[in-house]
Here is the input.
Amino acid sequence: MSDLLRVDDVHKSYGDEEVLKGISFEMDRGDVDVLVGPSGSGKSTMLRCINRLTEIDSGEIYLDGENVTTPDTDVNALRRNVGMVFQDFNLFAHLTARKNVTLGLRKVKGLDKAEAREIADAQLERVGLLAQAESYPAELSGGQKQRVGIARALAMDPKLLLFDEPTSALDPELVGEVVEVMADLASEGMTMLVVSHEMGFVRSAATDMFVLDDGKIVERGAPTDLFENPEHERTKSFLQGLNSAHGGDG
Amino acid sequence: MSERTTARGVPVDGGLPGWRRAVGGGAFALFWGWLVVRWIHDWFIVPNPAGDRTPFVPVGPFDAANEVLLSLADSLGVLGVPFDWLAGVFAFAAGAIPSLPALAQGAWLTVVLTVVSIALGFVLAVPLSVARVYGGLGLRWVALSFTELIRGTPLLAQLFVLYYGTNLTVFIRNVPGVGMGMVPDQAVWVAIIGFTINSAAYQAEYIRSALTSVHSGQLTAARAIGLGKVEGIRYVVLPQALRYAIPGWSNELIYLIKYSSLATFITVGELFNQTESIANDTYRYTELFVTAGLFYLALVLSASLVMNSVEDWTAIPGIGQSGER
Here is the structure.
């Protein structure tokens, strides 16, 4: 069992509506997998089940061979290993960029101030924002906020990073800087599970693409294969829709 | 005025223009300077717990000025009306001045009641409001019942229940040291307990609504980096919510300064109590209550000033009123 992440027949309902209808997939270390699919297909729910911001109804999720969906799993320990980047950034609004990054290091990992600061500054530099370390979120652009969000997740040294539509709240001209950071992470071997319709990123960085529709993975494969020879009707129509929406995209 | 900013770079509106700021600042310095000197004088320099304290300013010149102006007004006929009024001002001062030392002592208790009760009430209000917003059903219900019970009944009734209806008074009276020297007597302690409980309920409401105005994604993000729920509230939600709560909370402080006058009904010798007892003895109701009103006004304006400063010190770009851009 060398998979870093194994998702096994996960089901999740909200009331009467079943959002996830038996999802299974696995990721190796260093994989960059992208979940695509129409809105409401369960992509974000799937991500949130992995770090247990949402509790699954049935099925199992293994991180590094360990079942993390048991009742006695320490969710806070799990979340130390699984970072998350949010669509609307969710930077801690009262803290500077640097303190956004150090909070987890100080209060979760118990590092002292100097150590935390050193790590934070290294991560802020990695996303190109060391100069903005003392800025508050309200003083940053959307793209900068999201890069701080990535630095905050990276600082915890996670085994897996989850990205929940990291660029969809951004103005188009700010998408590039975030995608660039993500592509850098991918090339450095970070294991990433990404919900995104940013096809530029998918083509350049994704190992595999999972197409979700109506709570199921209807097709999976390398992006080039799926783009060129989509087998499933849903995949075809979805990718066509994306291409026209993004003006041809390559 | 050049544009001022706080330590964190949030712009602050310029405040009052220069000369009004100077006059206001002078008035505050005079009031607080006199008050503090009076307290120190009456406790340490000429301790005289029995009463009969001499005012710093003699009454004689004011009486004399009143006399002179009155006779001047008389001699001028209709033209003397302004002098008549001016004479009234001196008569008012002459009537008020002898009560100032007692009012200063009363103001001390008013300040103590307010500051101690608002602070202790805050300590209770934070967990209460967190319980209201983030607690389970049981906790939410307990917190809701408490706040509604306290906010739904008269403060005076609460004080009477505590003072006359429970053993609290006897219990506190038997605590060694109570009522000796600088330690206030049991009525003051009961009043502090009553105001603390009452204020906690109101403060909890202000903080509760501030908590709900913090975006839910903030706690989600805190949980996502591995913070527990309580830690997430402590380190992420509360620091923001308390900033949002400052304007409403300041209101509660101002109310409490004035509501503290209800302590007179359980025999606490605070500002209102001193005023009323002197007025009853001297029949100088106008002088006494107008002067007491000016005391309360000065206390309230001071509290507003302090809270404005607190708001400026704690301002963060993007949070709270002064942070809006």
Summary: The beta strands of chain A are 5-14, 17-27, 32-36, 58-63, 66-67, 82-85, 160-164, 192-195, 208-213, 216-221.
